[in-house]
Amino acid sequence: MATKIFNDNIQLYANKALDNRTGQYQNATWVGYPSTAIANAALNPAVRHQGLTVLIGNTEYWYKEGILDVHLITKTIAISANNGLNVFTNGNIQLGGTLLKSTTIDTTSLYTLTVAGANTGGNVTFQGINTSTGSAIYGDAISGDGISGKSTSGVGVSARSISGIGLNVSSTTSFAGIFNIRPASTGTVDTIIHLQRDSSGTVTNGIGVKLDFSIKSSDGTLGSANHIVSKWTNVTTASAISQFEIWGANNGFLSRKLALKGLGGLTLDAYGLGNIIGTVAYTLGVDIEGNVIETTAPATFTEVDTLQSVTNRGFVTTNAVVAGSLESRTGTTTIGSIGNVTSGLGPIFGAITLRPAPDMSVAGGGGQGVSTIWIKSDFRVYYNTSGNVQKAFAFLDDLDKPSIRTFASDAAADADATLLSGTLYKITGNRTIFQKP
Questions:
Q1: 332 with 257, same domain?
Q2: What is the pTM of this model?
Q3: Do residues 230 and 244 make contact, with C-beta atoms less than 8 angstroms apart?
């Protein structure tokens, strides 16, 4: 075909294209083809050329790389995208890719960034993954919430770490975290925080979880001040036994202070060593429902080790005795060899004196209402009657096993002052048990 050469401009006085291949007439108006299929059908390949521009709707297409139907594509300006953006073959720019620099998206009170979705199962709406040592997601706010998570029935915020901290929350002047639930029920106890302790191995007795309270100390470091521990002492599912513990620091050393066993028993580890002392004003008791209650402290007793001399009724001593108190007195030498006993009834091994009177300084027992109980070398326990008469009311071997004394006759039993009124006895050769009047 011969080439036409023009050495001047071409000017059309009509609303038509110079090249009628670029569009079509429709209702006496020049418009683009409705689709690429219609354009390819109207333009025979014999009249096409690479680079031919065709109007499809309001968008320019062209035969970019050939004259076949598949070569008719959108005419776009050559562009590139990076820093988290990608250009697809249709010319669309979409999110997705590698960040090449630190990137900031500024929001305002009118315009915010929202990532919304209706995901189910294990899918998440927004996910931050860090395969190194930094933070996957970091939220920083002046007075609002650094990170706020809300869910109707699923997980509002999920955080996980292989070897670091799964979730790190801090605040300068306000709460570090607020956990709130809003169920429809009004009279139930519901879980707000659920702590779980898992293991990749076979669990054994002692596995547990703890809350650690760390507080800044004088050297500027954060030291563990207290622990709250919950653990299994028996991990067998059918018979599992738990234990709740409170640990505290003293002199820089952390140790257990309290343990509440699964059965309900309570252990106070610091007691029983004599380290926590004071004056008893009240004691603790337990009522029938297991409530710990406060009761009146028991009377105190004074132990006196000095035995100066013994008469028929008591001691000579300079120790003042509180009214109603109980005093225990034993010899200052080896038991059974007290040499200053003058009762005339043999050595005294030991004695207990009950005295309601405040003064015990009178020789021979002195005060009114004195009652002395002592053990003599015949292994009998003696006491004083109100008439200052010594009587024995038991043998030491009687304290170990039941024993009934035997007499030749009733008269012999009645005459024996050591056989108390009401005491049982036997008569030789008679299996009948008698009682002394």
A1: no
A2: 0.49
A3: yes
